[in-house]
Design a protein that fits this description.
- By secondary structure, the chain is of the alpha/beta class.
- It contains 10 helices and 15 strands.
- It folds into 3 domains: 170 residues, 2-Layer Sandwich (Nucleotidyltransferase, domain 5); 62 residues, no CATH class; 98 residues, no CATH class.
- Helix 7 packs across helix 9 and helix 9 packs across helix 10.
């Protein structure tokens, strides 16, 4: 049946392809949004077809077009549909309801198993796989791959589709005129889950465990899963941020989360799993040898205190302070802290009283022999 597509509407689907990202050959899941009236495409690739990818695809597509379609047509993906009722009514997922409520577009769904109900975006999936992702793309990261895909989508606007005499870009004007304006603030494209911190300061999300500071053990938290990041919040405050892991059964540690506990148990320094793969500059290990050679067990504790400086000061500054302390021969936590703070405050490490005008100035004279005459009975100064 020949179809007519009014302006301002869209169709969405996911496709799969193979790519080499960061030197690793892997399956790519790419989000497609097609505007049937003008055949304008938007394509973005992700490591997996997840809720956060579904949300991020919409947010990115709306920003790419500069507006919000009047309606979007879907298949019955579980990312949007929690349940199909007997009367054909769909119960939306919580994430999809948030998306729809934020951008105020109408949702439409095809019949189960009838891909031809959204034939335009099905055609875009095939076109993108054959033209954008063939031959197998190679990119340093998904960001680089998506920059390439966005550029190809923009180039597509200068081409003609089907028997239309106008270019895709010329026909896009009618779609954009029918679009709704973007909201003042874009939706945060994340999946939200409630969780609880374990006794080992870990929070499980999608089969992987992410660390939080040990002070939050046994606390209830909220996990926000983004495409490339996992953020953990407690009482509304972000307490941990990690790069997203798409494996299974992986422990994702932030070594700084465990230093406060290790300071109370310094013998665990060499066996703590969180510190096992911590890539520290060589100067730190040199400092530890010097501290332990000079002070024994107390030197180990001081070394842990040096590591804890990175809870508040960037690693580069602390490493530079460690190297400077070793060069000066002032081996100790206090010396490293003084040098590091001086660099944070952009002042010389030596105390210069001119930088502290609120302190009283002292006038100290050279001692003369005559000054001691007052100590001799019967003499005056």
């Amino acid at each position: 049946m020949p179809l007519a597509h009014p302006s301002g509407h869209a169709q969405v689907d996911f496709g799969e392809a193979i790519g080499v990202i960061g030197g690793v050959r892997q399956k790519i899941h790419f989000f497609c949004m097609d505007l049937p009236q003008s055949d304008t495409p938007f394509v973005k690739a992700y490591p997996a077809e997840t809720t956060e990818a579904f949300l991020d695809g919409h947010v990115s597509a709306f920003a790419f077009f500069g507006g919000v379609p009047l309606s979007v047509l879907y298949d019955n993906t579980t990312l949007a549909v929690a349940k199909i009722c007997g009367d054909g009514r769909r119960e939306r997922t919580r994430a999809f309801t948030e998306l729809q409520s934020h951008y105020l577009f109408q949702d439409r769904f095809g019949r189960p198993g009838k891909g031809n109900d959204k034939g335009k975006v099905e055609g875009l999936v095939k076109y993108a796989r054959s033209n954008f992702l063939t031959p197998i793309p190679q990119a340093a990261s998904f960001d680089d791959l998506n920059a390439m895909l966005e550029d190809r989508c923009r180039q597509r606007r200068g081409e003609r589709a089907g028997r239309h005499g106008e270019t895709i870009g010329e026909r896009l004007v009618a779609d954009l005129e029918a679009f709704r304006d973007l909201p003042a603030v874009p939706l945060e494209p994340s999946e939200k889950r409630a969780a609880r911190v374990s006794s080992t300061a870990l929070v499980r999300y999608r089969g992987n465990d992410y660390s939080v500071p040990t002070a939050y053990g046994f606390r209830d938290v909220v996990v926000k899963g983004f495409v490339d990041e996992v953020v953990i919040l407690c009482a509304g405050e972000a307490i941990a941020r990690h790069r997203r892991c798409y494996g299974t059964g992986t422990f994702v540690f932030e070594p700084l989360h465990y230093l406060a506990l290790i300071e109370t148990k310094p013998n665990a320094l060499d066996q703590a799993a969180a510190l096992k793969d911590w890539d520290l500059p060589e100067a730190f290990q040199h400092l530890r040898h010097l501290l332990e050679a000079r002070m024994g067990n107390r030197g180990r504790r001081e070394f842990i205190q040096v590591l804890r400086l990175m809870e508040a000061i960037p690693m580069e500054m602390v490493a530079s302070a460690v190297s400077e302390a070793i060069r000066l021969g002032v081996i100790g936590f206090d010396a490293v802290k003084q040098i590091a703070l001086a660099r944070v405050e952009r002042r010389p490490a030596r105390l210069d009283l001119t930088a502290y005008p609120h302190l009283p100035k002292m006038d100290v004279r050279m001692t003369a022999a005559a000054d001691y005459a007052v100590l001799v009975p019967g003499t005056t100064a």
